[in-house]
Amino acid sequence: xxxxxDPPENINFSTIISTLNKAQEEAFNQQIKPVDSKGRYLHWxxxxxxxxxxxxxxxxxxxxxxxxxxxxxxRIPLLSINKKNFCFxxxxxxxxxxxxxxxxxxxTIKTPVxxxxxDKTTYLVRSLIEEAISSSQLEGADTTRKVAKEMIRQDRDxxxxxxxxxxxxxxxxxxxxxxxxxxxxxxxxxxxxxIITKKTLDSPEDAGKFRSREDQxxxxxxxxxxxLFVPPPADELNERMEAFCDFINSEENYFIHPIIKAIIIxxxxxxxxxxxxxxxxxxxxxxxxxxxxxxxxxxxxxxxxSIIQKSRSDYERSFLYTETDENDLTYFIxxxxxxxxxxxxxxxxxxxxxxxxxxxxxxxxxxxxxxxQLNPRQMAxxxxxxxxxxxxxxxxDYQRSHNVTYQTARHDxxxxxxxxxxxxxxxxxEFIYIVPDNLRQRLKINxx
Length: 448
Known about the structure:
This protein is mainly alpha-helical and 448 residues long. The chain contains 19 helices and 7 strands. The strands form 3 sheets. A 3-stranded antiparallel sheet has the order 5-7-6. It is elongated. The N and C termini lie far apart (55 Å).
């Protein structure tokens, strides 16, 4: 990825306007808005290739756009490398998405698919695993999802560095959930970083501490090996991170929407880049922490990293656009609002599919002459078992999937064995529970 072209600088709007003829002035005034006619928040690197409206030049179109942004922007008390404030504005298209996300993710309005307590627990474990895997894969972990899920659900020790990264990320997501009611401080960020980087750093002593002057950190393009970004000097980290925590904990004199603030937190930790490694994973974990703190409970069930992974170049480009256009965070905000929206849509699709599976199972069981009582966890297993003959379940896998005690998991599986829905076997010293080939016959369900 190449670094985008820097926009024209040192814009004197009074001088520009005074040089316009009447037709140009009318066209210029119509373009004093932060977005184009399609609602896009364009960087100069893209806008300069498009046909400008009216009889404006590309430069005049850009100047009008910049004026529209400056008139509606908000500055925050966090500084870039060149000691300029970061800023952002919220176009109408983003306002609309924020409104929809508020309704979908805070619980103030009922979600399309209702979740009981056990559903929430099961789906939360699933989302923790998915985000742990995707966030780690963004940073280079290369194990498969199947292997990673088995490792977490079986609670086995990681065997490779990639597995360790994913295991660490899973523990980090649990950590932030436990500390969502605490004010953020540097020691808490250090502890989070220790969890995220455990046994994965070249120098273990770098865990939970700021990088030093000796650490020559550069963000390099993965393909073309271009230098994309050099973070702030190490001797500024104490001051910058204290300001970062103050910004997060403070209630501003002006309103910043919680989702917007969470996105800014995500960007700023990655921008400050306080650690030798693990900055991206830490920044995304803090994004979740802040939204949980602000009551966006449904956000715990989505995975932004799985969406980012599918369009990684757009994610990285939004960082560069912000850094090359007067610290304008709006580029990154627009990218992440769309990521969150897609993640929520993906969650609802998943929940709807699960709901349909439940309804199909209920219809199947109504056809059965065998009357059985199962709890929601067992019903979920039965749905899976009907689609996966000869599948093997283990107590610890089941325990981790549903976040229950070992005894509860063991009782559920033994109960299903007694009801002839599973067969019990042994693998070494461990009891296993196997889906019988004739499960439908045992339930006395006809294939039709």
